[in-house]
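Example 3.2
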Amino acid sequence: MPTVLLDINFKTKCMETTQLLVAIVTGGVLGMMGQGIRFIIGMGKEDPNKPVMAGKLSQGLVIGFIAGALAMLIKAPKAEEMTIANRELWFTIVAAGYAGADFIEGIFNTLKNKLNASQTPPAVVPLEKDGAVKK
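Structure, written as tokens:
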């Protein structure tokens, strides 16, 4: 009968993975909350007769989730810091979702503009019969 070596730290590794996933999801939800606050404040500035763009809202919530998850990974690397009593952490992550969304949207818009600029055809330059540029 073959000998099976068991990893003694298996339970510890699983708990670390679980805690990491909880941190990512918690940060993401808090980031979405911050993005939701930003959306509500933005709606207060808009014309009340203007229709709500569901696509823009869902895009903003996804970006808020990403910003909040990243902020949680940066701000709270230890599981013991993720307690309900740690209000500073929660408000920091909500603020990251609020403000971080602008940062991420700015990066996406910059990349999108660069891609669109690279896809524009070059300008046509009129040439003489001998190949010289017309003046």
